[in-house]
Design brief:
Number of strands: 0
Structural class: mainly alpha
Mean pLDDT: 76
Strand content: under 5%
Order of helices and strands: HHHHHHHHHHHH
Shape: elongated
Helix content: over 70%
Low-confidence stretches: none
Largest sheet: none
């Protein structure tokens, strides 16, 4: 790979890694966006408390025993691994809940941020359009269902990775993050690139897969933080 291309690739990865953190800063400075996160916050608190009580009460010890008896882990390692696994399971429940109930809120926050920064106005001028193309209602519903059907099995199939402390969690968010990044950027691809179909969007994602992979992994990792993650980072990732 030529030096210039390699430098550009690393630059894109760095930008992709830093965008979720930049979204946190932007969200914290824009109080007008906070009101859109009130309902997700309340749902997050309730769902996290219920999940913590239920899973730590009924799932922690069985998983600890499984790791010791079936995988031969030492007692102290199996205990901490079981705790990490339970936290990942709580995060998975919150992810599913937010994916079903609040994916539209992320889209609204994203549009408001782009409008506020003047990005949408600039694109309208460059393309000579009064209104940017928007996702067709039926097609948008189809894409939402597609992401739901694609992400949920992948989240569940890769969940056992959390049995490996630290490395398992990193692998889990890495394998699942790129789809999350695609879901966040789907509307942008419609508005900016006029790419409505999954095949067209996949061609766009494929060429920038490293950026989607990195951005999605960091964004998803932030959302795994109990209480704060599903509320603050759910909204701030849309700002990034």
């Amino acid at each position: 790979m030529p030096l210039r291309a390699r430098s550009r690739a690393w630059s894109m990865l760095y930008v992709a890694w830093s965008l979720p953190l930049a979204g946190v800063v932007h969200f914290s400075r824009r109080r007008s966006l906070w009101s859109k996160a009130v309902r997700p916050f309340l749902i997050s608190v309730v769902s996290t408390i219920i999940s913590l009580v239920v899973l730590f009460r009924f799932a922690l010890r069985p998983q600890d025993r499984f790791l010791q008896e079936r995988l031969g882990m030492h007692v102290w390692l199996s205990w901490w691994t079981a705790i990490l696994a339970v936290l990942a399971e709580i995060a998975l429940m919150n992810t599913i809940l937010f994916l079903v109930l609040f994916s539209g809120i992320q889209s609204k926050i994203l549009r408001d941020v782009l409008e506020e920064r003047g990005v949408l106005a600039q694109v309208r001028r460059e393309r000579g359009l009064e209104l940017l193309p928007e996702a067709n209602c039926c097609r948008d519903l189809g894409h939402t269902m597609m992401f739901l059907l694609a992400r949920l099995p992948l989240l569940l199939l890769t969940l056992p990775l959390n049995c490996m402390p630290i490395f398992g969690q990193i692998a889990w968010v890495s394998l699942n993050g790129w789809l999350y990044a695609w879901e966040l950027e789907a509307e942008v691809m419609v508005m900016f690139e006029d790419k409505h179909y999954c095949r067209e969007q996949w061609q766009f994602v494929e060429k920038r897969f490293g950026s989607f992979f990195t951005f999605g992994a960091v964004a998803m990792a932030l959302e795994l933080i109990p209480f704060v993650g599903p509320w603050v980072f759910f909204a701030s990732n849309a700002c990034g």
